[in-house]
């Protein structure tokens, strides 16, 4: 089953709610790909022996991995941590997350600066490109077990919005603009 994504409403209600627009406005994998978000559906039950995960790690150079359990029972200052994760930011590197159990939401900005909510569930692996504005929260299940992948030593430095002059943001915006200029050929 493909990952679910949709444009969010502008409500300030609990961020752990789905925040669908009325009517619901779903987003395709192609739309996510256009803004640089990549997705795979993998076998989370046997992630330690999954040849597809190993292939992705080798091809993309992900040589560091750790596991993060997020839930009120396992994270000190849980509510405060969620607020930090939900603050809009960018990173200098890709953000790679593989959902092993539970579920949560990654919100990313599209080309028109609208929020797209990506529902990450067991088996979903996504890569957010460096420089994309995003945020994360759990859904109402209040539990997710994520694998985090990195090239080299882990760096998780968020740069909160606005970051329009940050070199990685400029590069991301330039890449988007170049993609939009490429003509689509007729079939």
UniProtKB/TrEMBL annotation:
UniProt cross-references to SUPFAM superfamilies, sorted A to Z: RmlC-like cupins
Cofactor details (free text): Binds either 1 Fe or Ni cation per monomer. Iron-binding promotes an acireductone dioxygenase reaction producing 2-keto-4-methylthiobutyrate, while nickel-binding promotes an acireductone dioxygenase reaction producing 3-(methylsulfanyl)propanoate.
Location(s), subcellular: Cell membrane; Cytoplasm; Nucleus
Gene Ontology MF term list: acireductone dioxygenase (Ni2+-requiring) activity; acireductone dioxygenase [iron(II)-requiring] activity; iron ion binding; nickel cation binding
Classification via CDD domains: cupin_ARD
Signal peptide from the UniProt entry: none
GO biological process, one term: methionine metabolic process
Pfam family, one: ARD
Record-linked HAMAP family: Salvage_MtnD_euk
Protein name listed in UniProt: Acireductone dioxygenase
Species, as recorded: Spinacia oleracea
């Amino acid at each position: 089953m493909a990952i679910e994504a949709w444009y969010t409403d502008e409500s300030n209600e609990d961020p752990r709610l789905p925040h669908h627009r009325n009517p619901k406005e779903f987003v395709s994998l192609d739309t996510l790909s256009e803004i640089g978000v990549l997705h795979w559906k993998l076998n989370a039950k046997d992630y330690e022996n999954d040849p597809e995960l190993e292939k992705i790690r080798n091809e993309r150079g992900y040589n560091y991995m750790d596991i993060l359990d997020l839930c009120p029972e396992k994270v000190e200052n849980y509510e405060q941590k969620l607020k930090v994760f939900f603050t809009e930011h960018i990173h200098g590197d890709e953000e790679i997350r593989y959902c092993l159990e539970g579920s949560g939401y990654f919100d990313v900005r599209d080309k028109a600066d609208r929020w797209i909510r990506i529902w990450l569930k067991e088996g979903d692996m996504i890569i957010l490109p460096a420089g994309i504005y995003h945020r994360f929260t759990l859904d109402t299940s209040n539990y997710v077990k994520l694998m985090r992948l990195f090239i080299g030593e882990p760096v998780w430095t968020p740069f909160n919005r606005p970051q329009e002059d940050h070199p990685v943001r400029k590069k991301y915006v330039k890449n988007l603009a170049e993609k939009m200029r490429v003509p689509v050929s007729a079939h």
